[in-house]
Structure formats: C-alpha cells, structure tokens
Amino acid sequence: MKFSSQFIAFCVAVAFCCNVCGADNETVTVDFSKNDGPVTGRACGLLHSVAADAPGDEMIAPLKPRMWRFRAFRCKETEKMPVLYPRLKKLGVKHFQVILSDEFGYSKTAQWPGDGDSWSAWDRQVQAVLDTVKENGFSVQYDIWNEPDSSTFWPRDRQQFFDLWKHTVELIRAAQPKAVIVGPSAAWFKMEWMKDFLLFAKANNVLPDVISWHENHSDGVPYSYLKPRIAEVRKFLAENEIPITRFSINEYLGEYNVDLPGSIVGYFAALEDAKVESAAHSGWQEAGTYYVCDLVSLDGLLDSKTLERRATWWVYKAYADFSGQLFELKPSATVQGLASWDGSNKTGRILLGRWKGGDEPVRLVLTGLDKIGFRKKDAALQVRVDRIIPSGWSASSGPKQEMDCVIKRTSRDVELTLPALGRNDACSIVITEVPAQK
Fold first, then answer.
1. Per-residue pLDDT tens digits for 47-88
2. How many CB atoms are located within 10 Å of the residue 168 CB?
C-alpha cells in the first residue's frame, strides 16, 4: 500500500491540530515500554446460554472463550454436559466450571442438603456428575454452590453451608483426589465472610483450589476495587499460610450495565489488571423478561430470537482479536481500556470504553514505541478507529469506522485526538506500521 507524501503530511497536520486543540481534554496513555504479560483472554467466559446445536460456531469461535460455567444435567437434552463439553472443548475453552448446586434446583419447598443432617439426595446428584466426568474423561472444575451468601440460592444459615462445603469436598476428593474445586462463588465480596470461609476450610482440610466470587455491579466499573480486593485476599492467605494462588470472578457485570459496551471494556481492564485465572459474563433478565443465561444467546451478546450480533458481541470480538503481549494503559477519568502489541505481525490493538461522563474529546498518547521496533522518528503508522455504539437489546450493524489514516511520527511519542466517544461507547483502534516507500 502506498501513500502520497501530501496525504501523510495532511494526517500529521490534522493530528497536530487535534493535539493542540484537545490538550486540556481527557488523556489516555499507552506505554509500549511497559510489558504487562501475554494476552490470555482471561476475561472471556460465559454462563450457560449455549446448546449442542446453537448458536453456530461462527458466533462463538471469534470470541475465543477461555472459560464456560454450566450445568451438568438439570437442563434441556441439548444443553447437558455430555453434549456441550466436546463442542466447547473443540472451540478452545480451557476452564469448564460445572455448578453442582444447579443439580439441586433451589426449590424453596425442598429438603435442602444438610436439613436434619440428611445428605443422601444431594450425594446422589453429586455422584452422578462425578461418574459422568470420569466415564467421559472430562477435565472440569467443580463449583460446589452458587451464591451461598444469598438467600435466593441458600435460604439456610452460614454454618449449614460450611457443613455442606466440607461434606461435598470430602465426597469429591474421595472419588477424584486431584479434582479442581472452585468456591465459594459468593454473590458479593465481603472480606469478613471470605475470611471465615477460608479459615473453616483450612481447619477442616477442605480448601478450594480456586477462590471465586461475583462482581455484579452497575455503579460504574470495578477497576478501582477489584485488584485491591484480590490483593487483600492474597495478603490474608499469606498471613494464614493458605497456599491458594488462583482466582475466578465467575460472574461479572451488573443488571444495568450488562448491555453497555463502555462498561464491559472497564471490566475487561479490571480483570486483566487483577490477573484472575478466569471470569464469566453474568446472566441477567433481558428487558425485564427472560434471564439471558437460559437462552442460547451467549448471555445476551446475541439477539435471543434472531441470534444476530448485538453491540456487546462486537466488544468481545475486539477483545478476542488481541494477540501478543499486553502493555500498560493509563486511563482517563471516564475512559478505561487495554492495549496489546504483536511483534509477529507488527500490529497493535487498543480497546477503550467510556463508562461515565459525556462525549468530551479523548487524547490518545502512544509512548515507548522504540521498544516495539519503531526506532525511526520518521516512521509512519496506519491508524484505524472503529466506534462501537450501544444497541441495547437490539441487533447491531457492527462497529462504525471513524478514522483511517497514516500518521507520521515526528517526535518520541505519537498523539492524536479520537473522534467522538459518547458515554457507554467503546472504541477499537488498530495500529500497523506503514512499510517504507521505495
């Protein structure tokens, strides 16, 4: 591809003008000299919402899901573990969390595990899952109970849940000593509750392999508190000589931001920064009707009737397109994001999301370019900017191209002001090197 010197000069002039005019606006800085580890896709996981025959692979494969959290048997025939596991494994899923408590069903009138010190019905349900996993050679993580700190899913006292936990861990490990156990999968993060759970589990030799809880918040994004929460738990583990290093936020996104591209990017950034092992999209009601996790819509990323892509699907696709290494991104007051660079194809990707505020211009600063091979000051960069506009519960026509031009590097850093980025919008930016003209 060739570009005239006049076109390159024009883009440089436009970028310079935008920089000057936008100098006092919000600034997002990507520092390519500060490597933040390999791209793993740790934030892409889903909850139920899939069947053996729907949606099509073309809707799932581009998202490169890393984790899936699902039921074993209490669901439709096409959604049961024996038929789902092979399909999802083929699609690249690495972590399978099977929710044992979903086999119980949460009926308020039923006898709950441990009532009257009775465990037989629960034991039969758990054993059926264990037998199926062993017979088929599946590699799963056992998520013992969903949200035991919520009366919706556990209308008994905390001690009875602790008894359930001990009883079930012992049952699982007697059958499968190397089983990976996930928990407590709490509805909310409460440090005192978590401390009591971990101390009980340590004292009774029933610690989980992966610590999990849910971050279903609608008040902004968890960037300011997710990493500190995990740090607080890690500190407690070290002080109490508890050897757990793995974390899963196995439900994230709140009821009122689950369909907002900008907030989803904020969650991606928080989960990446916290270095969790895995994370899964929550399943809320779609426009006050059905819970999306009970539909084959990838937790609402697809229209539940037509299975067309919504704006949120495109956000997950932009995140899945990352490759190579992650690099440090300093957010602005209203815009969060993450960045990558792949040296094998000399392509950088930046995904931004505005989770509050208005549509103020955003200045993007790229620094540390020498560290990724842009050593010449006169090197030119091809920059494409696509905006993902919220579509709510409706289908989306896809990202809207806002910019595609060449910017000539005239100084140590490259700066440009992004086109309009409205509240709840996301923005995908692709940066490639323009070959030197001969």
1. 999 999 999 999 999 999 999 999 999 999 999 999 999 999
2. 23
